[in-house]
Design a protein that fits this description.
single chain, 21 strands, globular
């Protein structure tokens, strides 16, 4: 009886003394939300659980993502051509604005000495699009003409002149067929971002704050909402094997590919019917320093028909661990894992009666994607080199090695007409009482993390966001908060001058 009483008292203490917020996953999303909440309300108690032994080891790690500060300057899949021949830039505008918001928040963190110097995670690098063939050149020209009408994209350059292109991208031009029509756009305001370094910097700060605890090598096994509205989170310490329950008022699932399984365990009605389609990736990594140093740009091309957005080919300058690198890819693949360090049973375990029909329907509608992934998996080293030579005609096999990239899980969701559809963006799923939210999906997630988390705050902490205190703090963290940058050129110029100066982004300073 005494043992039972002690156990009940321990459970009561755990519940009464539990955190205000639990964040699952130590990636860029949880780091961003944790930082914003702690700045908005310093007395919040936050606990973070990560199944691996370090932060940012999955999709946020520098080798597991493109590192492109996605601002839609060069990503052609964000600007589709409509049936009438015009270019739709609505998605590009939204993404560009979102990245400007991210830069403002990062500048706030730098200016207030919260995270490390900016050169540790962000550098200026031109963003370029490159195409060949008459139809593609015409598309790129129309895209340039349409985009430069918007303040966000003013300053973009366009050229079909081979001598100009040789200056911009010498590796891409050497050995290229001179009879082939080619064109490129260039935006000097582009950036390369080491999201792994940024994420770890934020967690380093968070774990030093009162009321914040980060638990590595801890896996969340079960979720259940109890009578008082709190969430009971069952956690296992993977090193000791110990299990315990944590009670929290708010729960955010930012576990990348692991988010779907946890959302299903929550049993919230809003999470019913979601499925996931995993896509893996690989890079060719250049090992020749002389070649690496001759390329100074992120050059994106057109994606193959049927390929997912994360497979848009690019010859990509990166800065990782203080060193310039050169990658080409990614080459898509298929694995039933939802995480790079996950289980091959992730996909089959995710299939439930509620999402079986949407997943089958989406699969039938996306046979071209399935065929594309099968072809990618079967590629030989010679075929991968051939794809690289489309962008770097004189590439040599001995200068490149294969590097495994991260896993992405694309969203499959119910659709009244089609049964199920495959989505390639990101989506926040939250319960009706807004005490739980889960982030599903992939690109361009990390670059737009601040906007995504602002949306979550406005949904799940509505009353506090509407308070004068939180509004004022949000405005301090993000000077353009609540205003449109695409429709306010003067504000955009002010914001870019500020973020360029604080983040040491040379083109922004040079423009002023």
């Amino acid at each position: 009886m005494l043992v039972l009483t002690r156990k009940m008292n321990h459970m009561k203490d755990a519940k009464d003394n539990g955190p205000d917020v639990v964040l699952i996953g130590a990636g860029i999303m949880s780091a961003t939300l944790g930082m914003m909440l702690k700045e908005l309300q310093p007395n919040l108690r936050i606990e973070i659980f990560e199944r691996l032994d370090v932060a940012a080891a999955e999709s946020s790690d520098a080798w597991n993502n493109a590192g492109t500060g996605h601002s839609a300057f060069c990503e052609l899949n964000y600007t589709p051509e409509k049936p009438d021949g015009t270019i739709d830039i609505l998605k590009a505008v939204k993404i560009a604005e979102s990245f400007e918001i991210s830069k403002q928040f990062w500048a706030y963190l730098i200016q207030n000495n919260i995270i490390e110097l900016p050169t540790s995670f962000i550098k200026s690098i031109p963003h370029m699009s490159f195409v060949w063939g008459n139809d593609n050149v015409n598309f790129l020209r129309k895209r340039y003409e349409t985009m430069t009408q918007c303040p966000l994209f003013q300053g973009m350059e366009y050229s079909e002149d081979r001598e100009q292109l040789k200056e911009w991208i010498p590796l891409i031009m050497e050995g290229r067929d001179t009879s082939e029509p080619i064109a490129a756009t260039r935006m000097d305001l582009g950036t390369d971002v080491n999201f792994g370094a940024l994420t770890r910097s934020m967690f380093n700060y968070l774990q030093q704050q009162e009321g914040v605890t980060i638990h590595f090598s801890h896996e969340v096994r079960k979720l259940r909402q109890v009578e008082d509205g709190r969430w009971r989170i069952r956690v296992k310490d993977l090193k000791s094997g110990d299990k315990r329950s944590v009670y929290a008022k708010y729960l955010f699932i930012g576990a990348g590919g692991g988010a779907l399984a946890l959302l299903e365990k929550s049993d919230i009605p809003e999470g019913q019917g979601y499925g996931g389609f995993p896509v893996s990736g690989q890079w060719l990594k250049c090992t020749n320093r002389a070649v690496i140093e001759r390329h100074q740009a992120k050059v994106y091309g057109l994606a193959a028909v049927g390929s997912p957005p994360m497979s848009v080919p690019h010859l990509d300058t990166r800065y990782i661990n203080g060193q310039q690198e050169l990658l080409f890819g990614p080459y898509a693949g298929f694995s039933t894992k939802f995480l790079k360090k996950g289980s091959f049973l992730d996909l089959p375990r995710s299939i439930k009666p509620a999402n079986l029909r949407p997943m089958i329907s989406a699969g039938i509608q996306n046979m071209a994607l399935t065929k594309y992934l099968i072809d990618q998996v079967r590629q030989s080293p010679e075929e991968r080199l051939g794809a690289l030579k489309d962008y770097f005609p004189e590439a040599k096999a001995e200068d490149w090695e294969l590097e495994v990239a991260g896993q992405r899980v694309q969203i499959i969701k119910k659709d009244a007409d089609k049964g199920g559809v495959l989505e390639f963006g990101t989506e926040v799923v939250s319960g009706a009482n807004c005490t739980l939210a889960a982030l599903l999906g992939a690109s361009p997630g990390a670059s737009t993390s601040v906007s995504i988390m602002i949306g979550l705050l406005e949904r799940c902490f509505m009353q506090r966001v509407n308070s004068e205190e939180w509004k004022g703090k949000l405005k301090e963290m993000i000077p353009s908060y609540g205003q449109s940058l695409s429709k306010n050129p003067e504000l955009l110029e002010q914001v870019r001058e500020y973020t360029g100066r604080v983040l040491d982004l040379v083109p922004a300073v040079k423009e002023k």
